[in-house]
Amino acid sequence: MAPVADHSTDTVLNARADARAQGGQVSDWMPYLPASTSPFCPDDVDPESLTWAETVAPGSYTHKVLARGTRFRLEDPTGEACAHTLVYNALEPTERLNVADTQKIPWQAYLGAGHPLLSGDGRVLATILTDTSGRHDAFCGTSTAAWNALRYGTALPEGPAPAGRDLFVKAAAKHGLGPADVPPSVSFFQGVRVAEDGSFDWFGSSGAGTSVELVAELPLIVLIANVPHPRDPRPEYIVGPLRVHAWRTPETTPTTPADERFDASPEVRRAYLNTLDYAEARGL
Amino acid sequence: MTTTIDNPVMRPVTTIPVPVTTYLTPDGQLVSSVPVGASYADGSPLEWGDPLVPGAVVLDEQVAPRASWSGVVRAGQVLTIVDVGGNQSGDCLLYNAHHTDERYSAPDTLAWQDNAYIRTGTVLRSNLGRALMTVVGNEIDRQDTIGGACSRESNTLRYGHHVMYHHGCRENFLTEGAKHGLGMRDIVSNINWFMNVPVEEDGALGIVDGMSAPGKRVALRAEIDTLVLISNCPQMNNPCNDFNPTPLRMIVSEPDVDYEADA
User: Fold this and answer.
1) Distance (Å) of CA B220 to CA B56, B72, B85, B131
2) What region holds the DUF1989 domain (chain A) (predicted)?
3) Between the N and C ends of chain B, which has fewer C-beta atoms within 10 Å?
């Protein structure tokens, strides 16, 4: 029977009643509002401190503006999530993730705990604090419509195999940003490794239940597209839900000289100095 | 193979040293904000080379050390870049000449070919996954697109705040991009012709001594009309130009009709 048979919508009042009757339902993927009501609040986090709680659908995207100092944790409950991520300085979004500097400045290609996500302006936008996955990627970016059409036969944004870039373009538009504002991204939970001849060895996922936690070093626009990694060798478009929680307490501050990670290397120390200098001058 | 260069638009070779900004200290000493050695040393071997493909030359220009350059390479034309002095990084960005929101994408280029290095045959892809240019000739083992561009800002991280006023590739990209309506949001991860950035087994990565030499070349066939931005890297704090910035030569050719590329 067609869905229309379940609805009585012949008048405005009936249509309103029909629409309202749909509220209060639960989906496997949805935002939780207020965030404190999240059924998946991490054990070590006070639910009352949550500012963002969401399970992102496979093949979809999310985006949020986060205050400086906010902690945000991405979790992969099934081992199949792939969180393609972009961060921007929310105050001046021309400052955004620069993947080349993020790999070059720390002299390290692979993301992990302690790795800064650097902008092209010599500052740290976010720092990876903890990482139980170890399988991330800063080489391959996200998928394009051309790639998904080749791999899966379709890439329609409304179809079963949307491309990461197309989702980023929509997420960016919701913050006044255009297609030119979608630079190369990083991805969490699905990794590659570079072999001696330069070829990519598929490293994949490290299984269900891993997470990465980051701290916002400046006010951030965060864009996340949850789609398969472009080098995922499986012929099917396979991706799992992604859990996101963010929180803020008096103890959650940006990185300061009192933190051990501030002095992890001379390069990162100067990056934090630049970040604090910017924040101080702006009165943050 | 010899190629006759019939060149109506050739610019003169830029002479060295480049003009520098200077001031006099109270004791009369001349001081410059340009690091000592930012122009190549007397006696540096220079090989100006030839186009890597046979055909009529339609543009032939030199890029002075530290300078920027841009040009449009029409679909089917081939751009030969000559590393005149050897191991001179040519930082490079590409755009669809008619719609610059479509631009070079390092991750798409690498993911499509399943390899982290650029070699002969590499298709240089856009952020839409489309082919902008194809590497049809390459005289060094591998080319870099991981290392990104130097900038005043990232220089402060890598070398210290005392280098803040050193020139950098992002400065060049901003200068040259502005001529085409491009700005900060249009600078993305770039290609570094003739620069060497190995990725080691544990993920260690960095700019190391180059594998190029005077006169080594790379040739790029445009698949669509492509705007090319070049920064002739002025970096004086790492080996991306042997600490001896030298010129680049940019030659655009209409390949002969019977020319068949390796790729």
Assistant:
1) 15, 12, 20, 12
2) 54-221
3) N
**Minimum-distance CB partner of B156 among A107, A199, A270:** A270
Neighbours of B96 (CB within 10 A): 19
Cβ-Cβ contacts under 8 Å, B189 against chain A:
98-100, 183-184
Query: Is the preceding omega at residue B17 within 30 degrees of 0, hence cis?
Result: yes
In sequence order, what DSSP letters do the residues of B137-157 get, joined into one string?
EESSS-BBSSS----HHHHHH
Closest residue, chain A, to B146 (C-alpha): A100
Which residue is it, tokens 């070349």?
B217
pLDDT tens profile A40-51: 999 999 999 999
User: Kind of pairing, strands B68-73 and A186-188?
Assistant: unpaired
Domain ranges of chain B: 46-255
Cα B67 from chain centroid? 10
Of A99, A144, A274, the CB nearest to B128: A144
Is the CB of A199 less than 8 angstroms away from the CB of B114? yes
pLDDT score for B8: 39
